[in-house]
Amino acid sequence: MDGTLFRGDLRISQAVQSAISAAQRAGIRVVLATGRMPSAAAPFVSLLRLDGPQIYYNGALVSDPAGETLFHLPVDSSVAQNVVAYARQARMHVNAYVGDTIYVERLSPEAEFTRQLNRVDPVVVADLQSFLVRAPTKMVIVRLPSVESGLVTALSKQFEGSLSVSSSVPQYCEMVNPSVDKGKALRALAERLGVPTEETAAIGDGDNDMTLLQAAGLSFAMGNGTDRLKALATRVVGTVEEDGVAEAIDWILNRQ
């Protein structure tokens, strides 16, 4: 969603909205595949009139707008507690996503950034490490103004085998169960819906979209996407400012 569907102002252009509506009228099921939680994505699900299952938390959760869970694979609670300990030692802010709530230890500037980005108010708990006896779906280390070069790699090494680490926005290091990725979620959802994977298409901009594009029959990288993503995409479309999603959908519809 961020950097693909909408720009920094969290608005979906009229051109993109119209293209998505055209796809739906043509019988194409549109699914969001996002690192966001359901409550943070809900306004966009409603705006686009999406009534089917959506992929959340980078593939850790698949659920529909009514709240029915089709798939959920959280982070092990002991691993999440170790992330909190790591963040404390490094003096970094960490978010824990449990259910449809974001938990933090204090309302720091990073927590405020999270609130503005997700339009969800974080909830403060006195001891996040002790609180995480319930397994969270995702952990996020937030860095302002942006994640330092090498931090994602360092976290990947620190929690190798226990977490999958990626970044969907410049300020986030996102951590999920290592068995989770958007591509697996797409394949599982396509199978449930009875859609052959070769008849699916994916659009993305970040490295956390790589498995999604690899799983799809047809793949599009945004013009503002990473070089790695562009290298594996079927086609590269315009940037988010150039309504690349609308361009990709128009291309699909004109093929039919």
Description:
- There is one protein chain.
- The protein is α/β, with parallel strands linked by helices and 256 residues long.
- The protein folds into two domains: 14-73 and 181-255, Rossmann fold (3-Layer(aba) Sandwich); 77-176, Hypothetical Protein, Haloacid Dehalogenase-like Hydrolase, Chain: A, domain 2 (2-Layer Sandwich).
- The protein is built from ten helices and twelve strands.
- The chain has helices spanning 14-25, 38-47, 77-90, 109-118, 128-131, 151-158, 182-193, 210-215, 227-232, 244-255; strands spanning 54-56, 61-63, 69-72, 93-98, 101-104, 123-124, 138-142, 164-166, 172-176, 201-204, 218-221, 235-236.
- Strands 6-5-4-7-9-8 form a six-stranded mixed beta sheet. A three-stranded antiparallel beta sheet has the order 1-2-3, covered by helices on one side. Strands 10-11-12 form a three-stranded parallel beta sheet.
- Helix 1 runs parallel beside helix 10 (244-255).
- The chain is globular, with a radius of gyration of 18 Å.
- It starts with 13 loop residues before the first helix and ends with a helix.
- The mean pLDDT is 94.
Provide a concise account of the structure shown.
The protein is 37% helix and 18% strand.
Q: Helix and strand succession? A: HHEEEHEEHEHEHEEHEHEHEH
What's the CATH class label of the largest domain?
Alpha Beta
Which structural class should the secondary elements be placed in? alpha/beta
Q: What composes the largest sheet?
A: 6 strands, mixed
